[in-house]
Amino acid sequence: MDSSTPSRSRRILWPNVLTVLSAAILISAEVFGAAFAGSWAIANLFALGTLGARVLDGLFILCGIAVMVQFVRAAHRVEPFVAE
Q1: Which of 14, 17, 31, 42 could disulfide-link 64, Cβ–Cβ 3.0 to 4.6 Å?
Q2: What's 29's DSSP letter?
């Protein structure tokens, strides 16, 4: 029996989770809105057509997902989701 790891109950800190979730929803709306607007603008500027706009949509959405993952990871460090 390993007594070095005592059993601790961990509880979820719902105010912190809701704060991060709310901020993530707000920021993701801005990030993905900017991604679609940017891809539309660049596709029209360079006359890339519908296919070019969709390719840029995909690239910018991937960038947006990376931004959101980094935001949630940083927010998790500031606002812990569980208390031990």
Answers
A1: 31
A2: H
Query: Side-chain half-sphere of 59: how many Cα atoms within 13 Å?
Result: 11
At 84, the pLDDT band (50, 70, 90 cuts) reads confident
**Coil, helix or strand for 53?**
helix
Mean pLDDT of the chain: 92
For residue 82, what are the β-bridge partners?
12
- Residue 7, judged by CB atoms within 10 A of its CB (0-12, 13-18, 19+), counts as exposed
Structure tokens at 23: 């901020």
Kind plus residue range of the DSSP H or E element containing 74: helix 49-78
Contact assessment for residue 54 and residue 75, using Cβ atoms and an 8 Å cutoff: no
d(CA 49, CA 44): 7
